[in-house]
Amino acid sequence: MTSYTGTFEPIDRIVIVGGGTAGWLSAAYLNQALKGSVHITVVESDAIGPIGVGEATIPSLRLTMGFLGFRDSDWMPEVGATYKSAIKFVNWCTCGPGGATHEYWHPFISRPEPSVLPYHCPFAMGIGQRVSLLHYALKHRLDGESRAIQQMLLPTQSLCEQHKAPINPLMPELSQEYAYHLDVTRLGEFLRQVATKRGVKRVVGHVTNVEHGGNGFITAVETKQENRLSADLFIDCTGFRGLLLNDALGEGIPIFGMQLLTRPTSQIHSIANSSSSRATFRFLTT
Ligand SMILES: Cc1cc2nc3c(=O)[nH]c(=O)nc-3n(C[C@H](O)[C@H](O)[C@H](O)COP(=O)(O)OP(=O)(O)OC[C@H]3O[C@@H](n4cnc5c(N)ncnc54)[C@H](O)[C@@H]3O)c2cc1C
Questions:
Q1: Rounded Cα gap, residues 132 and 40, in angstroms
Q2: Is 86 helix (H, G, I), strand (E, B) or coil?
């Protein structure tokens, strides 16, 4: 990691390299957060397009789009988005009763109650001392209840099975937590229009050279089209490539493979092909 001793100047110019979802989301967000006080430029390659897959989101995108000033009805139709209330895992374990198909619905929940202290556990985190719904459900599980906690406490699974939306426009307070599934290419285009209309500059060009200052920091990037873009802050949004982080700075991307409960397909194939294994593997993704 690059270490630096010296004075820090205020940031006046930001260059974001990469014009996929990450690039345009960062540009629109920073422009909004900094109230247009900083010059932001996004440079995107004319040779490599955005990856354009998926995409399943998590609920926080709702807050982000809200921060940018959009209600669901403003942006969802523009990017082919639909609501995503939960993730259904089918046969990820073999613990169904009597070997039956096992299903698990992972809901997007905000806890349906304030965190409360269990009685006689003053050391636990919580607010107030009442009967907790979660503790109530947990007690039932310990007493032999077979339904998962979210089935006992939340309407999400039932809504999903009935193909109902998580929102109630007439009574928003009854709406459930949700995320989205959307066309990521269209989301990128939507955010690009938003950001450029609000003052973010767009440069189309393939970055071929990264300049470093004496302290090792990046000072400018150059495109094949001979555009030189200098800035006080560079943000790497070049996707898996990591043009600035990997190639130019050699920082690398932390690998969390050891923590994942899934394996890359290549590993699955090698396990499945090994003579010592009779298990059948399927590639699982959300
Ligand atoms: C099969 C698959 C499924 C996925 N599903 C999901 C999902 O469901 N949910 C999820 O959150 N994520 C998913 N992902 C991860 C997905 O890659 C990211 O979420 C996101 O779409 C990547 O966007 P990005 O902007 O980081 O990168 P990209 O979309 O790859 O954009 C990279 C940008 O960098 C630019 N660029 C690259 N090199 C240069 C250069 N030299 N000069 C200038 N510009 C350059 C390109 O032009 C492009 O604009 C999935 C990935 C894969 C492969």
A1: 48
A2: strand
Protein residue whose Cα sits closest to atom 26 of ligand 1: 239
Other residues' Cβ atoms within 10 Å of the Cβ of residue 208: 14
| Rounded percentage of the chain residues whose pLDDT exceeds 90 | 46
Check residue 3 and give its pLDDT.
59
Taking only the tens place, the pLDDT of each residue in 143-178 is 998 888 778 888 888 889 999 988 888 887 778 889
14 CA distance to ligand 1 middle (Å): 20
Domains of the chain: 13-55+183-248 (3.50.50.60), 82-180 (no CATH)
Place of tokens 């046969």: 91
How far is ligand 1, taken at its centre, from the CA of residue 173, in Å? Answer: 35
Q: Is 19 in the pocket of ligand 1 (CB under 6 A)?
A: yes
191 lines ligand 1 (CB under 6 A): no
pTM, two decimals, is 0.82
